[in-house]
Amino acid sequence: METCDNIIPMKDEQIENISDFLTVKEAAEILGICPDTLRRWDRRGLVLAYRHPVNRYRLYKRTDLEDLLKQIERPKKGSRKK
Q: Has residue 78 been placed in a domain?
């Protein structure tokens, strides 16, 4: 069984907000990557995963993914468009 320090188990009070979370497939589609890449990023600590309290599947917060996309899209200081 895979163990990662960056996977957080969800508590019962978070279940009512389950719609704020996405499955691996849904999250990968939003980021434009394949699910295996998302799992790899998870293992490397590049994204934060939560565990579903019943089936233990990985879930990703929609807001975390939106923040990640903003960081990716934000141009670096000093970079020039050509």
A: no
Residue type, 11: K
Q: Are strands 7-9 and 49-51 parallel, antiparallel or unpaired?
A: parallel
The domain tally of the chain equals 1
CB atoms within 10 A of CB 43: 16
CA 57 centroid distance within chain: 12
Q: Is residue 42 part of a domain?
A: yes
Closest listed residue to residue 8, CA positions, set 47, 66, 62? 47
Question: Where do runs of H (alpha helix) occur along 1-82?
Answer: 12-15, 24-31, 35-44, 62-73
Note the pTM of the prediction, 2 decimals.
Answer: 0.70
Position 71 scores a pLDDT of 87
* Residue 31 structure tokens: 């980021």
- Residue 81 tokens read as 């468009």
- Assess contact for 46 and 38: CB atoms under 8 A: no
Residue 82 lies in a domain: no
